[in-house]
Amino acid sequence: MMDPLVERTLAAVWHPCTQMKHMEQDPPLAIAAGEGPWLIGTDGRRYLDLISSWWVNLFGHNEPRIKAAIKDQLDKIEHVILAGCTHGPVVELSERLAALTGLEHAFYASDGASATEIALKMSAHYWRNLGRPHKNRFVSLKSGYHGETVGALSVTDVALFRDQYAPLLRSSVQLPTPDFRLAEPGESAADHARRCAQALDEHLAQHASTTAAFILEPLVQGAAGMGMYDPLYLVLAREICDRHDVHLIADEIAVGFGRTGTLFACERAGIQADFLCLSKGITGGYLPLSCVLTRDAIYQAFYGDETARGFLHSHSYTGNPLACRAALAVLDIFAEDDVIAQNRAKAARYTELMAPLAEHARVRHFRQLGMIWAFDVADTGADFAARFHRAALERSMLLRPIGATVYFMPPYCVDAAQMESAVQSCVALLG
Ligand SMILES: *Cc1c(COP(=O)(O)O)cnc(C)c1O
Question: In the chain, which end has fewer C-beta atoms inside a 10 angstrom radius, N or C?
Answer without folding.
Answer: N
